[in-house]
Design a protein that fits this description.
The structure is a single chain. By secondary structure, the chain is α/β, with parallel strands linked by helices. Helix 2 runs antiparallel to helix 7. The longest helix is centred in the N-terminal third of the chain and has 17 residues. It starts with 11 loop residues before the first strand and ends in a 7-residue tail after the last helix.
Length: about 475
């Protein structure tokens, strides 16, 4: 429930959260919403703040975008947040967790870059997710000390003293009329964490929240929980902790606009994944006189979900930050640090030029396909030193004798013959007739043409563009 803002005043304060679902109109150049419940009718003098939330980036600093335009990206997000700040400066910016994705040096650089981006945008809080933990407590502690963004976790108990992590944060928003105190907590589901961590313990969320909520009861006006958990678990938390006004959740929810739950007076709102959307809640404080006491109405809930699509320009500040990120990948030569395995049967990759000697007709056809220029698409967006991108644009990056760098293995750039048919060393020596007989289908092509990299992929249509003619006798 909502507590009094000032127990001395005889004015009555009512905090209203208005729920709006954004119409996904790609042709609209401004934020346009659809009213779902109630009529806000906020007077011009009414103090208004906004809670903006994101999370579950999973390492997506920006969408792939090498061939098709996609949703998301820190650059577009910064533009939207700047727009919101121009409308009203009273913003609370919250990050649900999982800034990074894969374990390794690239993931570490990504998280450092992401935190710097959040700092530039003015984020207040980052809740720790399970993938954030994977970078290790030492590095996480370092980030927590140097970042401008506050780290919180209400249910992780760390044994190391280097982490600057708080169980909750109280954010004060001052307006001309009043001061709103917003309590922000964060939990991580134990179900998402393995038992291989020796320097921390992930406690039961409800047992951890109970004493904190009791402590915050008389200190805050609004209580928000960042719940890094699946929606079902967040619903159980809402049932056990009715003091919470709002829970931002939605682990494994791709379309946050399709999900909204209410448990008694607590609303549970998902955040989506991979930074494709930005959620915004509008908080309005309206003062009323009701007798000699104070009265606070229940929340009237609301949210705007904004897809980060082409109508948002890229922020120049974040664009520069991402260029620095790509330069760091190049400077540290991460392409040479890719973990590799041996191809099957001790075969080796030979490159497209060797295939062309005997299969010139097929080679000429391949040269006209998008696969042949796949590496050049990376060069155009300056991602040719990014291992996560290069993997799908060359031959055999994850295998010994496969692509290493454009300087050392130029013959393996592009999606070549051996990307589908496998290493050709034995066939080159023996002209074996059983080589190259592979089943090509959605599963095989979907390794690279997945929903994130190639959202418009239709196997039958794409196959017609790249299938080569039969070899003449």
């Amino acid at each position: 429930m909502i507590k009094p803002i000032n127990q001395i005043t005889v004015l009555k304060t009512c905090v209203i959260i208005s729920l709006l679902l954004l119409l996904f109109n790609q042709g609209c150049n401004s934020l346009c919403g659809k009213e779902v419940e109630g009529d806000l009718n906020i007077a011009p003098s009414t103090p208004v703040i906004h809670v903006v939330f994101t999370g579950e980036e999973n390492g997506y600093l920006e969408p792939c975008g090498c061939s098709e335009k996609q949703l998301g990206g820190f650059s577009k997000r910064h533009t939207l947040i700047n727009h919101l700040r121009e409308e009203d400066g009273h913003l609370i910016l919250l990050s649900l967790g999982d800034l990074t994705g894969n374990v390794g040096r690239q993931g570490e650089i990504k998280m450092e870059t992401a935190l710097e981006a959040l700092g530039l945008m003015g984020y207040d809080v980052h809740n720790i997710g399970e993938k954030d933990l994977d970078i290790g407590t030492d590095l996480l502690g370092y980030f927590s000390q140097i970042s401008n963004v506050g780290f919180i976790s209400s249910n992780i108990k760390f044994t190391t003293p280097v982490l600057e992590i708080k169980p909750y944060v109280i954010k004060e928003v001052k307006t001309k009329e009043t001061i709103l105190k917003v309590g922000i907590l964060g939990v991580l589901s134990p179900e998402l964490v393995g038992n291989y961590y020796h320097d921390m313990e992930v406690m039961d969320p409800v047992l951890s929240l109970k004493p904190l909520l009791k402590d915050l009861h008389d200190k805050t006006d609004i209580l928000i929980l960042l719940s890094h958990a699946e929606m079902e678990e967040s619903i159980k938390i809402a049932e056990a902790c009715p003091d919470l006004n709002l829970i931002i959740s939605g682990h494994m929810v791709d379309r946050p606009d399709l999900y909204l739950e209410k448990v008694n007076d607590t609303y549970i709102i998902p955040v989506g994944e991979k930074g494709k959307y930005v959620g915004k809640i509008t908080l309005s404080s309206q003062q009323k006189q009701v007798g000699e006491g104070e009265h606070f109405d229940n929340l009237s809930p609301g949210i705007e979900i904004t897809p980060l699509d082409g109508k948002f320009e890229d922020s120049s500040d974040i664009t520069m930050l991402l260029k620095i990120y790509q330069q760091r990948l190049r400077d540290e030569e991460l392409l040479l640090q890719v973990i590799k395995s041996d191809p099957s049967s001790s075969l080796t990759f030979i490159g497209n030029d060797d295939c062309a000697v005997c299969h010139n007709k097929i080679y000429k056809h391949w040269e006209e396909t998008g696969h042949a220029s796949a590496y050049e698409t990376l060069e155009k967006v300056e991602h040719e030193y990014d291992p996560e991108c290069v993997e799908c644009h060359v031959v055999g990056l994850n295998y010994f004798t496969g692509f290493e760098t454009i300087e050392s293995t130029p013959g393996l750039k592009g999606v070549g013959c051996e990307s589908c048919h496998g290493p050709g060393s034995d066939h080159k020596e023996t002209q074996s007739k059983d080589y190259g007989r592979v089943h090509v289908g959605v599963e095989r092509c979907g390794t690279c043409h997945n929903d994130e990299h190639s959202p418009n992929f239709e196997f039958e249509d794409y196959w017609q563009k790249i299938k080569h003619p039969r070899e003449g006798k």
